[in-house]
Protein: Pentatricopeptide repeat-containing protein
Organism: Buddleja alternifolia
Amino acid sequence: MSHFRCLSTNLVSNGTSPDKLRFEFGNINGVDDAFSMYKLMIETKPLPSIRVFNSLLSRIVKIKQYTVALSIFNDLSNLGVSIDNYAMNIVINCYCSSHRVDFGLSVIAEAQELFRKIVRERLCEVGNFMFGVIVDGLCKAGNTAMAIQLLRKLFYDMPRKGINRDVVTYTVLINGLSTLSRWKEVEVLWKEMIRCNIYPNVITFSTVIDALCKEGRVDKAHDVLNVMIQKNHVPDVLTYSALMDGYCLQGRVDEARKIFDSMPGMGIILNTISYNILINGYFKQMKIDDAMHLFRMMPHKGLEPDVATYNTVLQGLFRVRKCSAALQIFDEKQAAGHKPDFHTYCIMLDGLCGNGLVERAFSLLDEIEKKGLHLHIQYYAIVMDGLFKAQKLDTARALFADLPSKGLEPNVITYNTLINECSEKGLLEEAKDILLETEQRSCFPNGVTYNIILRGILKSGEFDEATKFLDIMIGRGFYPDPSTYELLLSLLQMNEHNRTLLNMITKFSSSSK
DNA sequence: CTAGGGTTAG
């Protein structure tokens, strides 16, 4: 079962810590491996040092099993293993990262209730694991304010437990806060850090630059870069790549290019990711020749395109309807021994369908099946969507009906595709029927489902009906997304001063705060 | 032993 190497205890030597020789974490690839390794470790006498447990935790974080790391951390504290700075930093990072990971929705309601209880009864000694679950749940539920309050409590508890906050602790927290756009709190932490004589470094600065870029505030990000340079910090390839990506996201690919060109002169070695960012930027601006030129340049610069490069290129080519070029690259890359990944197949299927090559998409599905690869339900959602868009309604519905025969269960995405089709065609009753069906099965509608239906109702001009639906939606914790909001605004322009629409917009703005 | 980047989705 488990395939890690476990050397004998007496195999020790030459200055290296015996602990380090004993366990090999690189082969841990899943939850089971992690737990069996942990079990093995705690059965060892004497117990391995916290450093060795840190290596385990770090591996578990690398494979993104945050809850596993948290539960092991919790167990460690219960065992009385003394926790150090490193462990603490890993754990805080878990809290900050795990809100991006899917969590059972059921946890959330419980977590919020539990949190209220803690506040009410001042039950301060919550286990670390529960603590993580709560923070996770709150983030997932969009209640970041509460999550941050909790994080800060943990944070302020550190010195009392004899653990010092260091630049890593602050960087992890600043990263978490800035990706959540909690800039006020970032500022407070930043000042506090300096007051404690802990100074931001290149990673701290880069983290802030990256978050600003992702928010679309690339000019502000550039200001931060200048401050950083002024303070004698040397930006590295990650700092500049983040900034390049920021310019690309704003469509300012020429400015991204300037940075790209200036990097080697500053002694920074461009890597595959720097190229990927710029190639993507060019494609998004439809500058196909520039994108392809860079792509073809990579091998001459000693860089090998990776799967993300190929995915970017394939998608870019399909978007400008250069199907044969895309297919050629797809074959080329496989001939060179590069394996397509899940995203590659999604892009191929979507690209083929979107360019009227539905038959080709079907044969690709067959190919995936023949290769014995996992038939991901997402592939079918893409092809279904393509079929609907190509007006091949019967084929699409037949594909949906065939899912069970392939051992696939429709998920919320395939349902959304179906609901979207009904909604676009104005078949609102049918859309709502399907919504009911998803609720009856254990396949829960999500925010996208509600948005699709709401947009359908709005397009049909039934504004009162839409208001009712919006109330239901908000009642269930889902909010209009940007494209629904845009639709609301454009409808308001066409129906000047329409009270119902105005009310909806007000309702949306006040509820999302 | 701990912190930062790119492709993607109804």
Observations:
- Residues 165-252+261-268 of chain A form a domain with the Serine Threonine Protein Phosphatase 5, Tetratricopeptide repeat fold (CATH 1.25.40.10).
- The first helix of chain A runs from residue 18 to 22.
- The radius of gyration of chain A is 26 Å.
- Residues 1-16, 100-107, 121-129 of chain A have pLDDT under 50 and may be disordered.
